[in-house]
Fold:
Amino acid sequence: MNKKKMIRLTALVGVATATGVVAEANQAHAATTTTTETTNQTTNASVESTQAAVDAAQSAFDTAQTSVDNAQANVTSASNNVTSASATLSSAIANKEAATSENIASATSAVSSQAVVVASASQAVSEQAGVVSAAASVQASAQAEATSASASLSSSSANVASATSALSAAEAALTSDQSTAANNLSAAESAASSASAAVSSGQAAVDNAQAAVASAQAIVDAVAEVQSSDVINMSVAYITALKNYLANPSSANEAALQEVAKGADYVKELQQKFKSDASLDVVVDPSDPTVQEALSVYAVNLINHLRNQYGLTTAFGASANANVAAIDFVKKYYDDEDWNIFGTTGSDGKGHNKNGLDAYANQLNTSIAEDAGSGLTTWVNGKATMATTTLHNLLYAVYSDIATMLFDDGGTNNWSHAQSIFEDGTILGTGGFNNVYLGVAFDKYGYAHYELYNATEGNHLGKNAYSLDVLTAAQALLTNAQASLASAKASLQRMITNLMVAKAAVVAAQNQLAALENSSANDLVAVTKARTQLASAETSYQTALATYKQKEEALKKAGDNLAAAQASLEAAQATLATAKAKLAELEETVANLTNADQLLAAAQAAYEQAVANLTTATGNLGAAQVDLAKAESQLALAEDTAEQAKVRAAIAAQVDQQLNGSTANDRQSAGQDATSLKTNGRALTATVATASAAKQKQGANQGRLPQTGNDDQEASTMALVGLGMLGMATGLYGYKKKRLTK
Structure:
């Protein structure tokens, strides 16, 4: 009977059996219940039995797998042994080939030579060990001395601490009044010292103020003399020629003016008229406001005297505001920009800073003209520094510059300086000079700048105007100096009074302290004694400290020597070890050459044994793999059988539930349906065939090894019986096929 036919027959048997069960259920429900319970028990027992078989098969499979793994490891190890034995055999063959009498003799000689090297190295190690032993002894002695010195230092430190404590106690024994008195004395002495220093400082201030008064008085005297004598007078012929030229600057008029003016010779004549007075040789600061006032007033007076001779009624003015503007302009556009107007020779300078003049005129919203002179460079003795200039230098520079401006400058300037002095309402052809104020400033190169501003209500350049009486300004300087002197003298007197009070306080504090010291003589003696003891303890401590440092240094040196000796010993030991290793290597070479035949035979035997072991291990691996394949097949069959048992148990439980829960009419109907199913075997067979095909597909997916024919038929028969019952249940209760066949 082929497999396909057997499947169809089994399906019909399943239907008949199911139909009979239903018919019996219609006749005797109690009997049917007993039958289904028995069936459930049987199927459940089958499930447990098949699961146990699966567990056993799994255990057998695991054991077989372990055997395969072990066998594989043995094969790997045996293969490695063969490789190693092969290498050893090759080495033995090479050794055999090298085992000539000449090589053996040479190797034996090398052993003898190396033995001498080893003996020498061993002797060096012994000698260095002695050095290390001696160094260790010295280090131990130094350690003992350092320990002793440390103990002595600790003892001395304790003595210092004890003496310090005793001194503190002795000092505490003194009364608080004595301490307060001592503090009072210290404070009084400090106050007296400060008062004395203040008096010294005050006296210096008075001396300086007196010197300033003397200097101011000299300036007053000198300026009074200069104001009356330093004027520049022009001849009528010069004035007439200059007016003709300024009205019509023709060549003829210029020649006539040159003839009358006499040029540089007349300038020297004017310069020689400047009154030189020793009282003017006082060092002054050109930027001092009082000096600035004197210079600008002096220059304006010279210019206005010239304008008066020329026949002009309008005069130039001088003010503090104009002076400040001149100083600011020169600093910003000459000093800060390193603009040397004349240069070092008088002909290599940059000239006027016209851009600066335009910018500053816009800033002040006014008209500005600038005259410049050689200033401090016109002295006979050469150029002076700004830091050491005198009032004489400055006044002479202004006088000389204005005298020089009266004549032809040469070049492109021609008579432009004279024009700036004698024009009225305009300067150098530029209008807007109806109220001229002059500011004087010296640049860092020593050149003089005369800035001509048109003062208005808006720019305030005419504010804080100076009196054009130079003597008034100088007298103000003297008045200020005298006031400073009076203030310094008053301050000095206060300081002297404070010093007298401070000295009296010192005397009182000394008396108070002396009285308390007389009444506390014993306490003072104790303090003195404690201080002496502390000094002695500190001296002992310093001695102990020096000894300790000496011993520590000796200990460090001994330790360094020991470390060096030990390092030398280690080096000698390393040399000996190297020599011994080489000797052993040479001895091994001699032994290998001498025993070449035995070593070769042993290597050959070991190689053959390794090959035999590999063959055995390979065979064991094959047998283990066969056992593993068989265990795997049995595990797959057991799992398939267990799955089928679970399906039968599920079907029996479902049928039992359906039969126990139905009425008599339901059972009768079920019987009719079963009869109908029995006669309609073709439809049921189709259902079973579909389920069988699904099962065959599942078996194909799960089966890892071929199954026996009997096992396959038995499993298929049981599956078809279950599926027949499943088909009947579907007809009776209408369950979905997908759910029942899942």
Notes: The chain has 19 helices and six strands.
